[in-house]
Each structure stands twice: as structure tokens, then as C-alpha cells.
Amino acid sequence: MILSVVIVSYNVKSYLEQCLCSLEKSLRNIDNEIFVVDNHSKDGSCEYLQPLHPKAHFISSNHNLGFARANNLAIRRCKGKYILLLNPDTVVGENTLKQVVDFMESHQDAGSAGVKMLHTDGTVANESRRGVPSPMTAFYKMVGLCARYPKSHRFAHYYMGYLSWNEAHRIEVVSGAFCMLRHEALDRVGLLDEDFFMYGEDIDLSYRLLKAGYHNYYIPVSILHYKGESTQKSSFRYVHVFYEAMLIFFRKHYGSMFFLLSIPIKIAIYVKALTALASMLVQNAHKSMGLVSHKEDTLSVEKFLVMDTDQYSYQEILRLLSASDHQKEIAFFYPKQKILITPEDVLHF
pTM here? Predict the structure, then answer.
């Protein structure tokens, strides 16, 4: 078998359905298997989707296992030469997976490969390629130098912003949203570290692949990470989970320096948490004063670039999105199902 695909899903039924539709088209000429691990969703994902996608293996958990543990549950059953970790809120083109598999076949040194992930307005997600967060790299990101000098080899190593988006490059960290792994390499370095509940496990795995002598690659093949940009990175939950993951990574790989590293990171957690609190209080005050308008009851379609999936292939939609002027976000219309999927909502007609 060539490719095993693992998707971990939690309460994103319609986005997962769209992901599976695009995925199955991309797998047509590849010997494959698909595993969907449902992390105790409350939206009836498995009951609804399993009859529609009978070839996929659905694994239901009776509680939320977290990202690493849920992926490992499926990885242990995988038989493919390559294993793709894929987020449920992604859309791939009809040629995407063949292009990535072909790249892995022609680069035997590749332990993993990632792709160009597009936001819903066509802009590229910085997380498509990253550097290992060494103490100094992490420091430059935390104090804002990475954002201030996005093309700097020194300050912007976290997002490797000095690399071209249109050429394949060796990178250090491949995002877990789309991460194609060589099964042989994974057997050698081990599965995802389950000490990470969410965030950080992809950094840790990528780093272990590098230390084992493999290379990680960025490939300029576009996919849509539908909700990637919607993560509230100023929220309490994100601040806590993300920086706790950084602490786990530093404790594991920079143990001798952990005490010194933990102090600035914990300070960053408190500062960002207080910033999030202040922002939330300001927004609530504005709402109570009527300075912020409430969300409209009806969603205006005019703000979206609506693509009819009967008229355009996923490949064509991704190409058009890449060439967009970033003024509108993408929305997928499915005429037969009478569903419109936007970054904000799923509308049924």
C-alpha cells in the first residue's frame, strides 16, 4: 500500500465531509486507506459520514484523546509506505497527493514533507514552514522580532520567511495540519509524543526526524486550511496550551537549560494572558456601550468568493484562490446537497 491518511476530528462534521470529498478525489490513482479518529464529537460526525464514505475507517473515542494520542491510535493500524496526517478543516486538490508522494519517492532522504497552506482569503499561512524553536529562535518570536523582520535569516527563523514560497526547500518543522511521513522513518524515531495534548507535537516529531538524519521539506503545492486562521491566538486557551507545549519541548530537548528557559516563557504566558484579558474586557465594554455591532442574523454572501463545486474542480478552486487579490474569502457551494460552506458558517438551503 502506498498511502495511509489519518484525520483527527472534533465537532467539524461539514468541514470533515468536505475534506473527505476532496481527499477521495485526490486518492483515485493511489493505493490507499483512510482513518478518521473522532475525538468524542457531539455533532454526530461518525453517524452521518460513515455511510457516505464506506471505504474510510472511522474510529470513535468515548473521550477527547488529544491530537497526538488520537493520531497514534490510527498510525498503529496504518499499512502505507507513507502516512499523511491531515486536519479535517483542509481541502486538497485532485493532484495534490500524487505530487507529494512523487516528491517523497524522488527524495529518499525525506522523513516528512509539508505544503503551502492557504488561508481562506488566499494568503499563505506562515505555519506552512517553520524552524526548530531553539532558545534564541523562540525568544525572537516572543519579543516580536520575528514579525518585525519577517525576511531576516536571524530574527525570522521561526517561520523561515526568507525562503521562496514557490520553490521546494529543506525546512525544519512540518505542520501537523498536513504532514506526509515516511513510515519507515516514523518506525525509527517513534510516534507522536503523547505528552503534548495539542500544539507542539509536530515540532517535536520534526526535530526527532532531523536528529535521526532525515530531512523535512516544504513543497510549493497548495491546499486550503479552511479554519487555520480562525484560531484565537490571543485567547486564554491558546496562550496556555501553546506555551505549555513550548515548555514541554524545551524540557525534553534542552533539559540542561530548562530552568533558565522556563522563566521567560512563563512571563510571556502571563503577559499574553493579561493582554487577552484586557482585549476581552475592552470588547465587552464596547458591546455594552453599543460601539460594536452585533453579528447579523443572515450571512452576506457578497463578502465571499463563492465557488460552485459542480463547475470547478478543487484543483481549479485552489489555483483561483492562490491568484486572488485577498479581498474576499472562499466559500464552497454544493448544489446537490444545497450546502454553502464558508469560514464562518455552514448554510443549508
Answer: 0.87
